[in-house]
Amino acid sequence: MSPKPNSPLDGVDLVLADLDGVIYKGADAIPHAIEGMNLAGETARLGYITNNASRTALSVAEHLSSLGLTVVAEDVVTSPQAAVVLLAKEIPAGSTVLIVGGAGLIEEVEKAGFVPTFSAEENPAAVIQGFAPEVGWVHLAEATFALHTGIPWVATNTDWTIPVARGTAPGNGTLVSAVHTAVGRLPIVAGKPEAAIFEVAVKRFGASTPLFIGDRLDTDILGSNRAGIESALVLTGIDQAKQVLAADANSRPRYILGDLRELHEPYPETIETTDADGIVSTQVGDAIVLRSGTELRIAALGDDRLNLLRAGAAAIWNSGASIYAITVPPELYSWV
User: Fold this and answer.
1) What span, in angstroms and rounded, lies between the C-alpha atoms of 165 and 32?
2) Cβ of 295: how many Cβ atoms within 10 Å?
3) Distance, CA of 7 to CA of 262 (rounded, Å)
4) Could you state, in order of their start, the residue ranges of all structural domains in the chain?
5) Which of 74, 150, 219, 224: disulfide with 212, CB 3.0–4.6 Å?
6) In this structure, is the dihedral angle defined by the CA atoms of residues 235, 238, 241 and 247, taken in order, positive or negative?
7) 20 an active-site residue?
8) CB of 96 within 8 A of CB of 69?
């Protein structure tokens, strides 16, 4: 008898979750996210990581609590918190810092002992930049004026987009790009996909075997991989089947989940075999994908389309070839 497959939570002492696209969209909880996290909290410590720099950790905790989770501010690790850690390595304690961003960023700058300003005329020692809906040209211009002097520049994150209740909107990366275009250099980045925010979280919670859950390959999964943390991609946010199949070697998750109920279910094994003709068979559950050279075909759809995606992703990822060189049947990605 083959051993029972483990669930993604087996041996995990800390579950770190992204927020937008994983726990909620806009103000509302994503189906099954609250139940999935509460159940995970029975066996592991829970923490939450967000690149959103416009809200304080307390306001995030209150929002999560209103959705049915038990969260205090210390459970929330924000990109502004990671950013001020980086900032402290660049400038002396108590320095004046020009802020581009919202309340969450302002609070962390003040808590770290820096003096906030919003004007380049105050001769700031550095610029720290994060997203807030109210950030506009005037704020970006002040950052540009200050940065032309060569002072350090720290960005909370460079997410190109953010998921909101009405759809996908421009993120902090678009605002950072505007300043970058004007000053001709790039900032030090604290948030995902950089490792700093993950390192702050692991240190705060004292974890040894964390699991991170995200909805984006280019920030969440890439960042957790850079930090050496095992990751799960959940298909309730930005990235879907097409992006999973095309994920580069640095942005591939250990687990692919449809929703957070699957944290607690046995995760199916991927079985790969090669026949005498060199045809590679990749099986997950009862879904089977065959690869001959750079062509994929489906041998068995199986009764779970998520397993078909897992099999297709493994077949592509293990081929060593770029997604653009592989013929991929649309059934692998057209069901979501």
Assistant:
1) 17
2) 12
3) 8
4) 14-51+194-264, 80-189, 270-329
5) 224
6) negative
7) yes
8) no
8 A C-beta contact, residue 311 and residue 270: yes
Residue with tokens 């240190």: 203
Tokens 């610029």 identify what position?
127
Q: Domain 80-189 belongs to what architecture?
A: 3-Layer(aba) Sandwich (3.40)
Domain range 14-51+194-264, its CATH number among 3.40.50.1220, 3.40.50.1000, 3.40.1790.10, 3.40.50.300: 3.40.50.1000
- Identify which of 175, 173, 39, 54 has the alpha carbon closest to the alpha carbon of residue 106: 54
Question: In the chain, what's the furthest Cα-to-Cα distance?
Answer: 73
This prediction's pTM:
0.89
Residue pLDDT tens, the chain, 336 long: 445 579 999 999 999 999 989 999 888 999 999 999 999 999 999 999 998 888 889 999 999 999 999 999 999 999 999 999 999 999 999 999 999 998 889 999 999 999 999 999 999 999 999 999 999 999 999 999 999 999 999 999 998 887 677 888 899 999 999 999 999 999 999 999 999 999 999 999 999 999 999 999 999 999 999 999 999 999 999 899 999 999 999 999 999 999 999 999 999 999 999 999 999 999 999 999 999 999 999 999 999 999 999 999 999 999 999 999 999 999 998 865
Q: Do domains 14-51+194-264 and 80-189 have the same CATH topology?
A: yes
| Angle between the N-to-C axes of helices 103-111 and 57-67, in degrees from 0 to 180, rounded to the nearest 10 | 130
In sequence order, what E strands does the chain have?
A: 14-17, 24-25, 28-29, 45-50, 76-78, 96-100, 115-117, 126-129, 153-155, 161-164, 167-170, 188-189, 210-214, 230-234, 255-257, 270-274, 280-284, 287-292, 295-300
Of 18, 75, 215, 218, which residue is the catalytic one?
18
- Rg of the chain on CA atoms, in Å: 22
